[in-house]
Amino acid sequence: MATENPAPAAARRQPTRRSRWWREVGWKYPVAVIVLFYAAFPLVFVLSASLNERGSLSGAQGLFSSVSLVNYQALGETSYWTWVGNTLIVCFAAAFGAVLMGAAAAYAFSRFRFNGRRTSLTSLLILQMFPQTLAFMAIFLLLLALGEVVPALGLDSKIALISIYLGGALGANTFLMYGFFNTIPAEMDEAAKIDGATHAQIYWRLIIPIVTPILAVTGLIQFIGSFGDFILSRIVLVSEENWTLAVGMYQWVSEQLTANWGLFAAGTVIAAVPVLALFLALQRYIVGGLTAGSVKG
Amino acid sequence: MSTRQDEVTAAPPRESHARQFGAGFVVKLLLMMAVNAFGIAAILSAWNAGAWAVLGGLVAFLLLADVIYFSRRMLPLKYLYPGLVFLLVFQVFAMAYTAYIATTNYGAGHNGSKEQAVEAALIQAETEVEGSPTYPLTVVRDGDTLGFAVNDDGTVRVGTEDQPLEDAPDATVGDNGAPSEVPGWEVVPRGDLLSDQALAQDVIDLRVPISDEADDGSLRTREGATAKIYRSSLDWDPEADTLTNTDTDVVYSPNDRGTFVGDDGSTLPTGWYVGVGLDNFSRAVTDAEIRAPLFKVTAWTFAFALLTVVTSFLLGLLFALIFNDDRIKGKKTLRTLFILPYAFPAFMSALLWRGMLNPEFGIINKFFFFGADISWLQDPWLARFAVLFVNLWLSYPYWFLVCTGALQSLSSETTEAARIDGASGWRLFRSITFPLLLVSTAPLAIASFAFNFNNFTIIYMLTGGGPNFDDTTLPLGATDILISAIYEISGVAGGRADFGLASALAVFVFVVVGVISALAFRQTRKLEEF
Prior knowledge:
The structure holds 2 protein chains of 2 kinds. By secondary structure, chain A is mainly alpha-helical. Chain A has helices at residues 7-26, 28-51, 70-74, 80-111, 117-127, 136-149, 158-167, 169-182, 186-194, 199-228, 231-236, 245-255, 261-281, 283-293. Chain A contains 14 helices and no strands. The relative contact order of chain A is 0.13. Chain B is of the alpha+beta class. Chain B is 54% helix and 12% strand. Chain B has 19 helices and 15 strands. In chain B, a hairpin with a 5-residue loop joins strand 4 (155-160) and strand 5.
């Protein structure tokens, strides 16, 4: 616009255009700075605390007043890395199993027409509304009983915890995938069937490769869900060497908040960075998935 | 129970035509063999343990698995079964079982069967027999079995928990009078008892019967060096179904509440759990001790969930309105940075804020309140405010994303039409944009309400439910929501356990969630999509 106008007119209009720009767009930048400060301040603070060599809450006076890696090194003397390992095992296994079972169920609902299909879908939809965590007392007693028979399914077993997470998998994931499976034209299946493919071959060779993106997103949502679980892992995992990060780090902070602050901060930074990176990289898909399944929020 | 990894993967790879022996069929056969091997092993183990309910479940699940995967029909079930097993056991059964526990008095002092209660009562009533001789003792072991070897006036005698004392003729006695070597047994060095806490506890708990007669009492030790005779002052009479105190002659008989009551009115501390009908529910609304704090907790739960949704929705909407503007440079980067709190693991955020809100050292007081000593998490109303504030920080990005998406999908024709009619600015937002936005986000708002209604993590990690009410003995506090109250009443994390009451509350929450879900259903009409 400015280049089209003759110079004197532009000069005259400059202030008004400027103020209009400020009124409509410009003011949004200072606001953005404020929002940014609100969003990021705690995260900057935890990074600063993790680098503070004094390692206690009382020592963390100013932001980045000292920069050292002592807190990160000190993590090696605690059970932190064991907890990281446990968390990864539990969350990966739960995510993997949940994706397998959810995809299989979604395939069945999407491709087969059978008696009770509608009822099953409705019941699943209703069931997934009820939080599994509320039944933790029943789960506790159930594990006590199962542990008498199969110790691997009893208390203090990671396999038992994974199984519990898988119990919630069908309800949470099936719908997300069901919708996605429905978008794949059934003519493709028909064509493969005519060529002599069995239903298992259609599922593994045809459908699964197409739906890989949604499988990845479902897996990630499930992973984040298990990662954040406290109540069930706290009840199931009794001994310290079996704890997940949520249980272990809560223990640090609840018992000796000020003394363990540096450890907590360093542990948080290490654990949160990969989750943060993954989430932000896949935010488009995750938000779509969350609005459908509502895991968090 | 076919609850194992192999089963999970077992679901899909199979051919419906068993006559084709392709690779898929081999894989299926191998997986089913593994499932059956595990299932049968578990069934045998359940048989040995006498766990009949578990046994029944295992048999049913295993038979069903074999029928489903080896029959040519039931195609959908082949894909659904593994997920269904987990769903049925760990969700459906768990919910039904919660409802059952709600009708029992399961909890501290009532957490086992009657037989277990009798055994516990006998052990608790055990006291040192007056004038008992002191036997020099050595702890011995055979594999995992611990035993006592004592020097009984020159004769060494050995026994374990299940094996009453018997003579060990070839044993030798050491300088301190305790047996030093016992053939067939490994002597546990005394130093081990000092260094190994778990072992020391096992030794203290160990009771070795003197003989087959229970009345003779049993040997116990306090420090692992000497043993004395202990005898229970209670006597169990299975025929009469009573316990009798042999010292005071009080006879304890069972009542219908799972407690032994003596004929002098006293009760024994250990009981067993029995059905109490709807007692837990009526206790929650009639017992003043429980009702008052529970009412406050329930009111706060609704307020917390509602205020969280409203505040975070409004803030997210505000940001979305401001920054959904193509003229802003770096819009994408800004958006990514704005949702940082949402991408950060929630439990870590809550713990982080807990430190930041610390009155003494917390950075909030130091930076923003000039070092004032504000007890954010110790004052009831400030703590409630802090919880809402932190949860706002956690959840506004969700609404920012949702509202941005909704704004972008609003049809520009509608807004154009309104503009032509002369509406602009606030009027346009109030009459056109906002109502349309509400329609598309209402189901999410309901889901978010249901989620926050049970948002255990934020409450427990940030305040632990505190500050505690001072007018009740229940471990509840000003920021407790129902699920954290249930957690604390249940006593799984310590304190007095009351599974019955906690489960009754859980059933109440199930009902609330059910009603909310029904509302959500109406809103979304999701069912019509099938």
